[in-house]
């Protein structure tokens, strides 16, 4: 591969000053870093949200003529990564990349209200847990009608909630809404499919950031911890655990960046994008198992305590990898795409956009 080809396959470089500013905001905010225990509900910090809004980060990817900052997904990925790195839980992705994007795509008005989005299933089953629903001010609800969907935005006061949380205490609430007498705005199924893909990509980015955090913390721990007169990093068994975790995290990030590059280059319309996102989600899901196990092994008992920051990464990775599709679901998507491509077209499926 020559230099030109390599450059064309490298993700766009985000302004370093913007990245530093994002990191600085969350670094200044973090207080001690100990988050809620499993099952304890987390509320996002309204003061932090206002600060992010004043810096143009709440609607980072929104159109400038509609109150946004006009940035792209690479910048959004840096913002999500910075939040994960500092253990800050806010509904940035659900608000900007999903709910507000969808409203803009339909030429519907977007104001300063905090939003999340809910897609009701076609099979008439129960609505899955909606991220941050009880904490948002409005919920954008989509429901199937024939071959298409309909959309209506509700104030949270109009909805009934069954509250719940994920492993790190982020709200995951089931909503109850009667849409039988609501006409709503028509939404083409293709746009809903794009929303599903963006949702999956959000979690892939967040899991990668959590895995990187766990690996970094593990490397720092074994380098500084002395056992039997020498650093843990000098023990071959520890080296194997660290190298395996780092390799899995790197694979997950490579798959995710490849899918993101393909998505942004084609405006989320690449022929093989579904396969690429499924591959990324499969990789991050399996990587999470290895990284979480190995990170806790090298930390020993101290890594299992609530006071240690390791769990802010490991529990987050395990929570997010199961949202917008389980690991098994994405494994099956990869397998189905490979079988459908067949032997002659399989290489083209794998190498497209790589």
From TrEMBL:
It comes from Mycolicibacterium fortuitum subsp. fortuitum DSM 46621 = ATCC 6841 = JCM 6387. Its cofactor is FAD. This is Acyl-CoA dehydrogenase. Coiled coil: none annotated. GO terms for molecular function: acyl-CoA dehydrogenase activity; flavin adenine dinucleotide binding. InterPro entries: AcylCo_DH-like_C, AcylCo_DH/oxidase_C, AcylCoA_DH/ox_N_sf, AcylCoA_DH/oxidase_NM_dom_sf. It comes from the Bacteria. Pfam families: Acyl-CoA_dh_1 (PF00441). Keywords: FAD, Flavoprotein, Oxidoreductase. Residues 201-322 form the Acyl-CoA dehydrogenase/oxidase C-terminal domain. Belongs to the acyl-CoA dehydrogenase family. PANTHER family: ACYL-COA DEHYDROGENASE, ACYL-COA DEHYDROGENASE FADE28.
């Amino acid at each position: 591969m020559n230099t030109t080809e390599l450059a064309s396959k490298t993700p766009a470089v985000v302004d370093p000053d913007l990245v530093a500013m994002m990191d600085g905001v969350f670094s200044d905010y973090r207080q001690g870093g100990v988050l809620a225990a499993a099952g304890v509900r987390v509320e996002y910090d309204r003061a932090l949200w206002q600060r992010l809004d004043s810096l143009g980060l709440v609607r980072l990817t929104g159109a400038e003529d509609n109150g946004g900052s006009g940035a792209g997904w690479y910048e959004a990925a840096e913002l999500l990564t910075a939040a994960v790195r500092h253990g800050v839980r806010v509904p940035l992705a659900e608000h900007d990349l999903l709910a507000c994007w969808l409203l803009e795509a339909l030429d519907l008005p977007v104001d300063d209200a905090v939003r999340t989005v809910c897609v009701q299933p076609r099979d008439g089953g129960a609505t899955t847990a909606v991220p941050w629903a009880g904490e948002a001010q409005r919920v954008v609800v989509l429901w199937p009608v024939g071959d298409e969907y309909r959309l209506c935005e509700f104030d949270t006061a109009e909805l009934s909630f069954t509250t719940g949380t994920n492993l790190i205490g982020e709200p995951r609430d089931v909503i109850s809404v009667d849409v039988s007498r609501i006409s709503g705005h028509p939404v083409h199924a293709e746009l809903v499919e794009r929303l599903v893909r963006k949702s999956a990509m959000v979690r892939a980015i967040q899991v990668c950031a959590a895995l990187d955090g766990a690996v970094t913390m593990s490397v720092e721990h074994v380098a500084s911890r002395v056992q039997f007169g020498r650093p843990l990093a000098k023990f071959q068994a520890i080296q194997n655990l660290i190298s395996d975790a780092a390799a899995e995290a790197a694979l997950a990030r490579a798959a995710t960046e490849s899918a993101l590059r393909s998505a942004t280059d084609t405006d989320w319309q690449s022929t093989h994008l579904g396969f690429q996102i499924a591959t990324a989600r499969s990789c991050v899901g399996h990587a999470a198992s290895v990284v979480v196990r190995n990170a806790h092994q090298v930390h020993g008992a101290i890594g299992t305590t609530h006071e240690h920051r390791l769990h802010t990464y490991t529990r987050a990775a395990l929570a997010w990898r199961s949202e917008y599709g389980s690991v098994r679901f994405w494994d099956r998507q990869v397998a189905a795409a490979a079988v459908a491509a067949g032997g002659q077209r399989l290489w083209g499926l794998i190498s497209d956009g790589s």
